[in-house]
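URGENT: need a sanity check before tomorrow's submission.

F., can you look over the Derlin record below? I want to be sure the sequence and structure line up before it goes out.
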Amino acid sequence: GCAMDIISPFSLYFSFDLIFFEGQIWRLITTFLFFGMFSIDFLFHMYFLVRYCRLLEEGDFRGRTANFVLMLIFGIAMMAMVAPFFSANFLGSSLTFMMSYVWGRRNEDVKMSFLGLFSFSAPYLPFVMLGFSVLLGNPVTMDVMGILVGHSYYFLEYVYPVVAEIRCWSIKKIMQPPKLLHWLCGTYNEHIHLHQD
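Structure tokens as predicted:
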């Protein structure tokens, strides 16, 4: 829409004042949908976002739609809270890096290759992407923010429950989707059966 001048990027960018004082709530979503005008950088981010979003959905989150939506909500909320401190306008690249970070950490044994030049393990994917992004002339702030938010999610979803179980803490799992989210995602019945067993 922006490439064809149907929509102006000025109506999409993240602005704390416009969202919370002017009521332009849509900016909380549209800031994640704009990756710049059509370019190599645009293709780079779109490819990685779609690819790793799909791989997470089909892998770790298969049959756990509410958990996947909770991950997106967590990422969007964290980035929206941090964005004003970095004067961030568009957060799409941060979301891309968050997805690739979580996927990489959950697929540690997968070997990858970057443009056939060198091989690396999946956990290093976001850092290889970061290097490529720098080569394209992009600032690292948004990408590093995505990596940090991805790491926060990974810790709360996969590391904390193991530590809580070992140390016998009363709260075993923090990233548990509420029943309403299960109902909205159509996984409420599976959620009930899982907790009854």
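My own read: Residues 29-185 form one domain. The chain has a mean pLDDT of 79. If you see anything odd, call me.
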